[in-house]
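Hi D.,

Good news: the full-assembly prediction came through. Inputs first.
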Amino acid sequence: MTAATPPHTGPELRKAPSAPPAAPPSRPATGTVRRSLLRALPVSPAVVLLLLFLAGPIAYCVVIAFTDLQLTGQAEESFVGLENFRRAFRDEAFLNAVWLTLVFTVLSSLIGQNTLGLALAALMRRASKPVRTLTGGIVVTAWVLPEVVAGFLLYAFFRREGTLNAVLDWLHLPSQNWLFTLPILAVSFANVWRGTAFSMLVYSAALNEIPKEITEAAEVDGASGWRRMWHITLPMIRRSIGTNLMLNTLQTLSVFGLIWVMTRGGPSGKSQTLPLFMYEQAFQNSLIGYGTAVALLLLLIGSLFSVVYLRLLRTEV
Amino acid sequence: MATSPASRRDRRRTAADAGLLVVAAAFVLPLAWVVLSALDPHASLRVKVPDGVTLEHFDAILTPEITFTPLLNSLILCGGATLLTVVCAALAAYPLSRFRSRLNRPFLLTVLFATSLPITAIMVPVYALFVRVNLIDTMQGTVFFFAASQLPFAIWLMKNFMDGVPKELEEAAWTDGASSFQSLLRIVLPLMGPGVAVVTVFSFVMMWGNFFVPFMLLLTPDQMPASVSINDFFGNRGMVAYGQLAAFSIVYSTPVVLLYVLISRRLGGGFALGGAVKG
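Then the structure:
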């Protein structure tokens, strides 16, 4: 929860009035203008905050990504054009971070949170009430916990002397030092642990909206559970799947605290996703300009997803 | 033996229960670790039944330096930012929900776009900007940034709840000469109490757990909120005291878990937010 996630509010989007009939151009009534201004007044505190603290940094990001701004030593930064970006694409550590971000996103968000969330939501419809309440409560608690606490819990879980190896020992399976040998897998699992509740809630809400008659009719026709899922349920909730995947992906793209607490991106960069790479360049190596160029790339990927998400809402609603 | 629909349903329920319980068991292990270790005099990294119950870890951490100052800082930061967010969001949502304007749609689309931007990405430029304008290491700068980062989502949520309040109720007040501001304050907001509560609690919970923003924007140890000060259990104190770390995690997490439970009860089940974000 992170997940700062927007509501799906498609219908409102469409309801949002298209431009009202314009006032006759012959009399540009000052009264109307004044009234519109007066009505827009309450929006201004929000707009000022958003411009100063959100749009401002983004604009500044675009500017300093093209400079060689450093943290120390240098009196003035100078414009270096595309040098930061050229450097990034020659930098093996950067390419490694792009790859790991991809692995992390696909494993934990596209596959993990999404599939497990859907499976949990589907199972909950058939399960008995106490089991449903218990499981839902546990999964949601993992989601509500602060990011750093979740990081520590999973750190303890995956450590060599931690719980996972205890369980493996008990099952007579080989144990290993997860955070050292497979750190990206460990942090991906951590993200699944922390983020699945969101998908579960989204899919539970979506499944509840499917009319009972439809599934019952299919059942009478003899369609098996899997076929019903594949041919009826999934197509009916495809819009939820789209929005959920998009939001999960955006959320996962910006995970920092969880990985930072568990591995600091290590060992030797083996779990260093783009946000951690950006932080290391900007602060450990004091290259603010370079770090910002990486941030800008991350922002661009995010905006691309956002635009797709907006289109999805608009066309599918 | 023919299977009746009833017995088939029973079997299916058993299978679903079993599946859910397996997942629940996997999910509960890390949570069990934190609860058991906080009470275990010989806490380690492994889940085990404590060989005795003690409150010494809580005793050790419940000092001003370790717990109360960071929690107070968290409260000031998140409380201030939440207040700012909710007030600005309520004001902004009102004209968007009540008046027609050709600017509504572009504004709402921009806000929706902003809700999905990865805030993590802009922390480095925000740091550079804050250094330049002398807002770095200040509570007010952090509060403003927190509020701005939460605002797009809050405006969306607030507008949707506000749309649910019928306009007729206000029209009566308007004919009696009430201003828009008065009708927002006296009629609309009280009628959408649960909605305001959801926006408030959600904003607060998001900020309470946020690590990266204060980690970047605050430098002085005295100003650190709990999300950052929890790091001190590693490194600075030499050997990691896992029992104390677990105890602190519980103290720090309890407020948000309670708030979440409260709000989901009030809105009928834990699916209130799920409903708000459903596709």
